[in-house]
Specification:
Layout: H1 2-16, E1 38-39, E2 45-47, H2 49-60, H3 62-69, H4 71-76, H5 110-129, H6 132-147, H7 172-190, H8 193-209, H9 227-230, H10 235-245, H11 248-263, H12 272-276, H13 286-303, H14 306-320, E3 347-348, H15 349-366, H16 369-385, E4 394-395, E5 397-398, E6 423-424, H17 434-447, E7 450-452, E8 456-459, E9 465-471, E10 474-482, E11 489-505, E12 512-515, E13 520-522, E14 525-543, E15 546-550, E16 556-560, E17 563-568, E18 571-578, E19 585-591, E20 597-598, E21 605-607, E22 612-619, E23 625-632, E24 639-640
Parallel strand pairs: 8-11
Antiparallel strand pairs: 1-7, 2-9, 3-5, 4-6, 7-8, 9-10, 10-11, 11-14, 12-14, 13-14, 15-16, 16-17, 17-23, 17-24, 18-19, 20-22, 21-22, 22-23
């Protein structure tokens, strides 16, 4: 009898042990993972200080005027309406210069990218700046674009003879992704259910025409595709819809999209099997590769599949080999299997935005501060350093060591058609893609500055801003007063009548800090957990010093806090093509007297208030030591960042 009882207890115990699911495929759904933090609506966070000023400058400049700078691409082509693409159209004006012929057919979706990525940044910038004139223009656009939606929910750029029927390059999902991201921002701003309904109908139309697990939206008979691969970023839209509605069908569809993308024969880095092959370096079109990181992350969180988590880790290691001192992922425009190099490799402004956005997505999902450190490094260094410090224009391609901006990389101008290494408010000769993304990058940074969950408010990204939100239905306002990253003192003014933890990210470069409030530290965050009542002012000062670091090629560079420093090079400006808006031009810059320096292992004298630094470097031509100044990359056009 005792033996029977013992056996019964043992069997019951075995039955109570939760069996691990059998995972037969990296695309098996083994249990979705909820994001660690909540992305707040764009209405709850406002930029302040220099961030507000920059967004307003963009609105007054290329972001607010792109429709009048290139009206033929943005205003004249009603690609989502009466000018939808049909099988009869073989060519159209997409802005880029090139030889005629059938090769242009694959690029017919280009204007949808130009228009909708521009609108996305324009909409978000106008909301953040509360610019009523621009907001009124946007309202008229929203009314128009909703009027183009078909009865079946279709919002897109193809007429009925083409849509969803492709065996080659197409922009079906890409055109929707860029369009719907902007509409989602407008919905967050207005709360208009009509807009959300239109977005959901458009999403349903995609799911109906590309049924989950029984269709192949990424099939192409040839592996080199642009719009088709870009289309994977529609995962951004489905993630947003899941966050808003809680509808799990959207989350499941994300996993299906990444699975089909991975199983097709495409020359893309982010396919699962390629990521798992440690011998394969990244080589694809940079902007595709870096934006697909967040689509993979979305698929992992939709499925909880540990194989996808492993592929994310491998992906991040591969990206690390392509990352420059400024945080940029190289790709000029192709990564090409080559490592990052401060002088010999450039990076595209589109890639700067997409890699930053992918890191921000990983912050939101995991709460891991290291991704916020990476995002800040890109935004404050590579992105600001490719934005003209005085004029309203940007560099399409830029390199950390930027010795010349006259068309080709650092003066290599044998290819006369190469215009990307110049400054322009448009870059029409190449493609009007980077200028729209230059208008998106600051709004996306701002919207991810503050995150929250049930009991925490997280200052994930630092900088001048204001937060107005609630926890447990109790209103909370936090003003972050600072000149960060150009100063490392931050004043938080908290107004609340609630108990919650304020978590402030401690950047990875901090050597120490002072705080006027009791705190604990947790996983790289400074935590103030208390019952707040009334208004509290908290003073935080990060301590740092000039640090000599090395890039992946063991070249030396200097940092002060998050700022990467550079030796500015005096330049001769050449004004080029003018535009329909007065005062807008293309610009080239040649060095006045180029001297390439080497590291001399000398100390750096720092004036942190004026952000001016002096050191001694070795003049490679004279072999003499010269006294030179260093300034933040953000303040430069031509410069040297790394020193052998």
């Amino acid at each position: 009898m005792k033996l029977i009882i013992a056996l019964t207890i043992a069997l019951l115990a075995i039955g109570c042990v939760k069996q691990k699911p059998v995972i037969n495929s990296p695309f098996d759904n083994v249990g979705a993972i909820e994001e660690r933090y909540q992305l707040l609506p764009i209405t709850e966070i406002k930029p302040a200080g220099w961030l507000q000023k920059q967004i307003q400058e963009n609105l007054d400049g290329f972001t607010g005027r792109l429709d009048t700078l290139v009206p033929k691409l943005i205003m004249d082509d009603k690609i989502y309406g009466k000018d939808r693409l049909t099988s009869k159209i073989k060519n159209k004006n997409v802005g880029a210069l090139g030889a005629g012929g059938d090769w242009q057919v694959q690029f017919l979706w280009w204007n949808s990218e130009t228009q909708s990525n521009w609108r996305d940044g324009y909409i978000r910038s106008a909301i953040l700046a509360n610019d009523q004139a621009h907001l009124q223009k946007i309202k008229m656009y929203i009314d128009y674009i909703l009027s183009t939606q078909d009865e079946d929910g279709y919002l897109g750029i193809y007429d009925k003879d083409l849509r969803y029927h492709f065996d080659n390059e197409n922009g079906e999902l890409w055109a929707k992704s860029t369009l719907l991201r902007g509409l989602l921002a407008w919905y967050e701003y207005t709360g208009d259910k009509k807009i959300l309904k239109a977005i959901e109908q458009a999403a349903k139309n995609v799911m109906d025409n590309y049924p989950i697990n029984s269709s192949h939206p990424f099939y192409s008979k040839q592996p080199n595709v642009g719009g088709t691969s870009h289309g994977l970023t529609i995962t951004d839209v489905f993630e947003s819809l899941y966050r808003i509605t809680g509808n799990k069908n959207y989350r499941d569809y994300i996993l299906f999209l990444y699975k089909d993308f991975s199983e097709q024969t495409l020359n893309e880095d982010a396919q699962y099997k390629k990521l798992m092959n440690d011998t394969l370096l990244l080589k694809g079109h940079g902007v595709h590769t870096y934006e697909h990181l967040r689509s993979l992350a979305a698929a992992y969180y939709a499925s909880g599949n540990p194989h996808l988590k492993n592929s994310i880790d491998k992906f991040l290691m591969k990206i690390g080999k392509k990352t420059t001192a400024s945080g940029a992922g190289v790709g000029d425009e192709w990564i090409g299997g080559r490592l990052a190099n401060a002088t010999q490799r450039g990076y595209e402004y589109c890639s700067l935005h997409e890699l930053m956005h992918s890191y921000l997505s990983l912050v939101l999902k995991s709460g891991d501060k290291s991704f916020a450190d990476k995002a800040e490094k890109i935004f404050f260094n590579a992105a600001q350093g490719a934005r003209h410090p005085q004029k309203s224009c940007i560099a399409y391609l830029k390199s950390d060591n930027s010795y010349s901006m006259t068309g080709g990389l650092n003066g290599h101008n044998t290819d006369k058609s190469q215009t990307r290494y110049t400054y322009s408010p448009v870059h029409q000769e190449a493609a009007v893609c980077c200028v729209p993304n230059a208008g998106r990058i600051a709004p996306y940074y701002v919207q991810h500055m503050w995150l929250k969950n049930n009991d925490d408010i997280l200052a994930a990204l630092l900088g001048p801003s204001a937060l107005s939100t609630s926890i447990h239905n109790k209103p909370i306002t936090i003003k972050e007063q600072t000149n960060y990253p150009f100063g490392n003192t931050i004043r938080f003014e908290v107004t609340a009548d609630a108990k919650f933890a304020l978590k402030i990210r401690k950047p990875d470069w901090v050597t120490g800090f002072t705080l006027s409030e009791a705190y604990t530290e947790e996983n790289g965050f400074i935590v103030i957990n208390k019952a707040w009542k009334g208004t509290h002012t908290i003073e935080l000062t990060f301590k740092t010093e000039v640090v000599v670091r090395q890039d992946i090629n063991h070249e030396n560079y200097f940092t002060f806090g998050v700022l990467v420093l550079a030796n500015p090079i005096e330049a001769v400006e050449e004004q080029g093509k003018s535009f329909p808006v007065r005062g807008y031009y293309n610009y080239k810059y040649a060095p006045q007297n180029l001297v390439v320096y080497k590291y001399a292992n000398e100390k750096v004298a720092a004036d942190p208030v004026r952000l001016q630094f002096k050191t001694v470097l070795l003049n490679s031509a004279t072999q003499q030591k010269d006294s030179v100044k260093l300034v933040p990359m953000a303040n430069t056009i031509l410069r040297q960042v790394t020193f052998q």
